[in-house]
Amino acid sequence: MRRSSRNASEYRSTAGQPTSDSHLWRTLSSLAPYLWQYKWRVLLALSCLLCAKVANVSVPLVFKNMIDGLTGTQQVLALPALLLALYGGLRFSTSLFTELREILFARVTQQAVRRIALEVFRHLHALSLRFHLERQTGGVSRDIERGSRSISSLISYTLYSILPTLVEMSLVLGILFFKYDFGFVLITLLSLTAYIVFTIKVSNWRIDLRRRVNDTDSAANTRAVDSLLNYETVKYFNNEEYEARRYDSQMRQWEDAATRSQISLSWLNLGQQIIIALGVTAMMWRAAAGVVDGKMTIGDLVLVNAFLIQLYMPLTFLGVIYREIRQSLTDIERMFDLLAVNREIADAANAIVLDAKSVKVRFASVDFSYEPKRQILFGVDFEIPAGHTVAVVGESGSGKSTLARLLYRFYDIDGGRICINDCDLRQLTQASLRTAIAIVPQDTVLFNDSIYYNIQYGRPEASREEVLAAARAAQLSEFIELLPEGYETRVGERGLKLSGGEKQRVAIARALLKNPPLLIFDEATSALDSRTEKAIQASLDYAARGRTTLVIAHRLSTIMNADQILVMDGGRIVERGSHQALLEANGGYAQMWALQQQEEAVEVEVERESAAAHAL
């Protein structure tokens, strides 16, 4: 299915705008293929709908004949048994065909919701890192939630309310036209037209109010989610009341919008009831006049009254239904807008699958910038031969972690080439490229699940024995065995129940379990104390053995054995060589080394004094 593409900024700027009629038709045309996949179920459901309405309209006709058949003192005895049986049968048939329609259509609706939600979910994961860094998670999740729910609402309102009402309206108008004079049809048409026009005009005016309610609701939800995700930061700065005031400020806007929307709804309902009252009064006056003149029977009066009730009862909810349909279409459109967001990073048409047990990495004069006015890398050029380890050091902001993001192809470079086994990254499928890489990131974020799940996430099909082996290799097993629930211990939202060092050890175990030909350690031991770092370093060295490894490091003591060390400054490689060669060059690396040696000596002295005090 073809959709227009847009970028992330266009999604944000148009998500709250009024929905035009062309957009509504586009949304309906986008939704139709998901439903038409089950066309036989749809056609059978529509047939049941028609049968149910024919039976429903036939009930007043039978009831009229029953009333007209009552004569004198023998009323009960004179009731035709056949009409009674027919009356009951038609009543049951209405319910039978209605329920059959719902049974037939239930799976169509739920399948459509599931398939669309899954497609949006997959598409969001396929979008670039840039989109996810710029997005508001709470607002996007609310758009998906409302869009999925609105599909069910739209189908329910159209199939179970609007379409049945239109069918019944056509049948009733036909009976009134052929059985009575045109006056009844004219009054009914005028009433229905006035009601529908009034409802649509006022409801369209109210859509902006409803949209304001939804926008303020999404904004409040986004603010709440953002605050709760940063729970620790809020606590660090004692800003609970500040966050509460910010949330309340957003909720006040929602309160004002919701109040205006509710008041306008009351005025709409009042106007609708005035039109219905006038139409019913005119119809009953004409029917009563016909009875007095002898042109109509009491049964005809009952029939007209029954038809009016059948017509106006669903019309009472037409305003609500129309508004909900419009709102559902708007919510669905916003979800489809997510699908229309352009994938910044896409596989080439002739992309090939990387299938290698060992890899060679080459950065050839790479230029890169996250934003056009702020270049990050300038002519970066280096190679990691297969099975070798290259370490990158430098001050914060020098572009070290950007190298890892580019290797994963989260972004495309501005100039130069990045090659894996002499093949440009852009000619490889992203799935096969990322299968060949494992990373231990600087900031480890875990799923709100068990420790076992978070380790196994590195390779979901791995056996329990392999998971436990990875935990042991990351020096994690002893800690886990001390926990009451062991490997089934839940780590909390983003892993907040674990310390920084424990989270990084889980990330190391996850990377080891993946067992790829290319490893990236992005300051993997930065959150660990010296003792734990030394214990894990042996495991990291073992894991890197025989693999191509890129180590982005802060502590220089962890990279002494690297085959080559690159020193970056301002997005450029300013020094390169082995640890010993760089020390002998007495440049920036030698200065960093000397400074860190002093810091480590102080740390050792502090630990010694602490141990001595504890012994006393």
What is shown here, in short?
It comes from Candidatus Propionivibrio dominans. The chain is of the alpha/beta class and 616 residues long. It has a domain of 333 residues: ABC transporter type 1, transmembrane domain (ABC transporter transmembrane region fold, Up-down Bundle).
Oligomer: single chain
User: Which percent bin holds the helix content?
Assistant: 55-70%
CATH architecture assignment name of the domain at 8-340 = Up-down Bundle
Number of helices: 21
Report the CATH topology name of the domain at 8-340.
Answer: ABC transporter transmembrane region fold
> How much strand content do the residues show?
5-15%
Provide the CATH top-level class of the domain at 8-340. Mainly Alpha
Uncertain spans: 1-6, 8-20, 71-75
The secondary-structure class comes to alpha/beta
Explain the overall architecture.
The protein is α/β, with parallel strands linked by helices and 616 residues long. It is 65% helix and 10% strand. The protein contains 21 helices and 10 strands. It has helices at residues 8-14, 21-36, 39-68, 75-78, 81-126, 129-134, 137-179, 182-229, 231-236, 240-292, 298-316, 318-340, 400-407, 430-435, 451-456, 464-473, 477-481, 500-514, 530-544, 579-585, 588-615; strands spanning 361-371, 374-384, 389-394, 415-420, 423-424, 437-440, 518-522, 548-552, 564-569, 572-577. A 6-stranded mixed β-sheet has the order 6-7-8-3-9-10, with helices on both faces. The protein has a 4-stranded antiparallel β-sheet with strand order 2-1-4-5, with helices on one face. A hairpin with a 2-residue loop joins strand 1 and strand 2. Mean pLDDT is 78; it is low at 1-6, 8-20 and 71-75.
